[in-house]
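tool_call predict_complex ligand=flavin-adenine dinucleotide
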Amino acid sequence: MSHFDIIVVGAGMVGASLTCGLVDAGFKVALVEAGQLDCACDWPQNEVDPRVSALSLASQNLLTHLGAWPLIESMQRLQPYQAMRVWDGCGTGELEFTAAEQHLPYLGHILENRTITSALHQCLAPKNYTLFEHTKIVDMSPQDITPRCLSLASGEKITADVVVGADGANSKIRQLAGLPTREWDYPHHALVTRVKVSQDHANTAWQRFTENGILAFLPLSSPGTDPQGHYCSIVWSQPQAAAQAMQALPEDEFCHALSGVFEGRLGPVLATDPRHVIALRQRHAKRYIQTGLVLVGDAAHTIHPLAGQGVNLGLLDVAALVLTLQQARHDGQDLASLPVLEKYQQLRRRDNLRMMALMESFARLFGNQHPLLSLLRNSGMNWVQKLSPIKQHLAQQAMGVGPHLPPLSQAPKTT
Ligand SMILES: Cc1cc2nc3c(=O)[nH]c(=O)nc-3n(C[C@H](O)[C@H](O)[C@H](O)COP(=O)(O)OP(=O)(O)OC[C@H]3O[C@@H](n4cnc5c(N)ncnc54)[C@H](O)[C@@H]3O)c2cc1C
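tool_result ok
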């Protein structure tokens, strides 16, 4: 039976980043993935991943430290955004954040999730780690038996000092560990797709709060097949029946309806890719750790996509866990012990909860059409727009910048 310092379960954006960071730090790591690792070389040029992420500067820093950012840049599917405009469709409230106000070239980047995973998987290829692909975890030894033993669907058994669940929202590792969650459905399903618009998106992320949901237009780079075209990824959160009705509309009717709800800010919507509807659920593990076990990314927390923070929080988990395990090894501590893993939980749980509470209050505030609340939020938005310290604080939260970040989330030092 093979033994590892750490087994990471799940090779999504979070698990693949974590594996890179841990291998770079000198740990003996195994990565278990139910599917197969992505390779950009397998993509047809005109195929687009409908799942996109708005990556913060802190996430960009992490991917730079891991060596994935130059690979992402070389794929030429990266769209920086320099402004963010948010407005209330039921009033006059409007907020604008710009990179210029922050004295930065951009606020973040929009990119297809597959671009991120395939760059990370490319980074992993030459590294010294063990990959178990196309196999799932089917069982795990309980916490009082150390080291932890994982049984794979392939019949293999592997052990590790620490098992990390990076296996997404429906984490099998979380389930096998019996770690409870607090969770509930948002009253929204998200309709996601790529659309072609008639006007330049002005490198701006647009978000309109409507009477029954939230509509975001995120700028995308023009594809090689249509270099002069203007494209956006949309995330349209609305009640399930409304999302499904929009998904079922013929393309021209959908484009017409979408242009109307977006108030034609980028001119008529001209075309759309296939539309996907995703149920949105808030989930938070009450504990992220057990002896010899840790949860990261969506396995630990999923939040409403309205501020595009899900994977950014997961990548902050990665930086905090690498730091915690490095320090423990340096100090000669047992990696599997609760006092060590508590440090990771302390670094991340409060921040994740704070961001989740903020998103929850936005979703509730904008989901309520009471005239008094509508008046309050419209005057509140206009007030924040004029009040630079609060605006500055909100912008910094969204960009994920701040003085107390782990080293992997900070900008690499230039010599
Ligand atoms: C509509 C929408 C829009 C979003 N927009 C943004 C955004 O703009 N910015 C942002 O930061 N976040 C955004 N998010 C959130 C973001 O997509 C997630 O936070 C992110 O994908 C989570 O990554 P992960 O690696 O933790 O999990 P996943 O991507 O779910 O990866 C889990 C991996 O584990 C593997 N796996 C699962 N079970 C097993 C098993 N038993 N054994 C082995 N392997 C297993 C899976 O195959 C997969 O590869 C959005 C989410 C939604 C729904």
